[in-house]
Write a structure and sequence with these properties.
- With 267 residues, this protein is mainly alpha-helical.
- The chain is built from ten helices and two strands.
- The chain has a two-stranded antiparallel ribbon.
- Strand 1 and strand 2 form a beta hairpin.
- Helix 2 runs antiparallel to helix 6.
Length: 267
């Protein structure tokens, strides 16, 4: 099982680097759109849809809406629904399993469509910026750093459960470890870039919020998978599960990160 997992990780890394370095704006938008369409097909399963044709239709709807947003250049406007989406998700995670409203298939489909659309918009806005590679590295560093810090800190010190009914393996100590590691990375970035104190503090706050919401994205997918009684969103990626299993944190972190960067005038 280890070999397929390693080979899949290498392939994903090569494809990701190629997309970032070699593709122009249009190519990158099509690439990320394709990834998110596959994720939409998986999300339909998390929403309780088992009929294959319906899952494909839902993926097509996500593709069509993304295309419409691109045609009318509405990416920045769409990102403003992000705070509302993740406030709903936070309530669902906190109230699980007593809260019942999210169990409706229609609501889960609308939520999935919204988070995938805002993710695509965030990556499109990021790509169009002059500091695309730098900011993308920052974003991915926050997500990966949060996961890495949480893993090691949770294993060493984890005692208090973060969301016992949603994801029993996650702890508050793990979250704190992820925050500490990512803040240390942001300090190093600020020093190397010779940022002012105000800019450094602004970046630290953006990082803090982004990491916190990335954890929420992971928990939200775990909630839906637990409700449906499935371990992975699909089996498309050997050793890794599905696309949604790889990008759950991205769907929450990317829109929040880009929206905050827009508001401080960095995008």
């Amino acid at each position: 099982m280890l070999l397929p997992r390693v080979l899949s990780a290498i392939v994903m890394a090569v494809v990701f680097v190629y997309a970032v370095v070699a593709l122009d704006d249009i190519g990158f938008m099509f690439f990320t759109g394709a990834v998110l369409v596959v994720a939409a097909w998986e999300w339909a399963r998390l929403s309780g849809i088992k009929v294959q044709q319906t899952r494909i239709a839902f993926a097509g709807m996500v593709a069509t809406l993304s295309y419409g947003v691109a045609i009318f250049d509405l990416q920045r406007a769409v990102l403003w629904i992000t705070p509302m989406l993740w406030c709903f998700a936070l309530y669902w995670v906190i109230a699980y399993p007593t809260q019942k409203a999210w169990k409706g298939r229609f609501l889960r489909l609308v939520f999935g469509l919204s988070i995938l659309l805002t993710t695509w918009c965030a990556l499109a806005v990021l790509k169009q910026g002059s500091q695309f590679v730098t900011y993308l590295i920052l974003l991915m560093g926050l997500i990966w750093g949060a996961d890495t810090g949480a893993y090691f800190s949770g294993r060493l010190f984890g005692k208090r459960k973060l969301a016992r009914h949603v994801s029993p393996g996650k702890s508050w100590e793990g979250v704190i470890g992820g925050l500490v590691l990512t803040q240390a990375g942001l300090i190093a970035f600020a020093v190397t870039q010779d940022l002012s104190l105000v800019a450094s503090l602004t970046l630290a706050l953006i990082g803090l919020v982004t990491v916190a919401v990335s954890v929420l994205g992971d928990l939200t997918e775990s909630l839906f998978k637990r409700h449906e009684g499935i371990k992975d969103s699909s089996h498309l990626i050997p050793g890794h599960g599905g696309v949604m299993d790889r990008i759950d944190s991205v769907t929450s972190a990317a829109p929040v990160f880009v929206l905050l960067m827009m508001n401080v005038g960095w995008l």
